[in-house]
Amino acid sequence: QVELVESGGGLVQAGGSLRLSCAASGRTFATNAIGWFRQAPGKEREFVAAVNWSGGTTFYAYFVEGRFTISRDNAKNTVYLQMNSLKPEDTAVYYCAAANGIAELRLNKHFGSWGQGTQVTVSS
Question: Which residue(s) pair with 58 in the sheet?
């Protein structure tokens, strides 16, 4: 089983950038797909992006396509979410999660429980 801890959130103006990190512990990290999700106040948690075990395949929700980039460094047991051209509607708590593959993450299926997440606030 893999345990994940999110970090890197903060307050940024619209149009700005942030890079989130998802640090993993556990022997299976390098074989897991990792996804980023977010939950805004009063809304359901939604899928944002995912990367497969090798980093060679990625998938994005339509509302972040072209603005966000997911990547991973298996040597550092870390997955990143580079967020550019941020909008106020990107304001949310961001979470990462692991699964066998990207298809599962897109269906909001993942291993274990949600972590604490990291708050991203975009001001207009």
Answer: 51
